Each structure stands twice: as C-alpha cells, then as structure tokens.
C-alpha cells in the first residue's frame, strides 16, 4: 500500500465532528482526538493520542487534529 494512507479523517461536518474511515469503511464521527483513537483501537490499530498529528497512516482532510468544530459561517 505504498503512498496510500488507510485512515482518512474528513473535514469537520456542519454539525461538528469529523467522519473517520479506515480502508474505506466508516468507523464513526469523532468529536476529538480521544474519539479518533478509540475508533482506531476498535479497528485493531493502536495509536497514542500524541501520535495522531504526525502519523503517516492518517490523511487529515483540510485541517489537522486541532480542529473538530463546524466551520463558522460569515
């Protein structure tokens, strides 16, 4: 799977939270790093909260792990 990251964390949804997929399967809607880590643990992927920002396995869409809230409307 060279060059491909199996974990995708989508942009925050309009209602808040970010959809998490592993190998194309939706694991759920994470509202913070703890939720993400728990979804990954349940999928058999052990990763520490402090590792998510720099993990080569995670494709952060649009923004990184610091943003979980809905985008503000102007």
UniProtKB/TrEMBL annotation:
Protein name: Uncharacterized protein
Annotated source species: Streptomyces griseofuscus
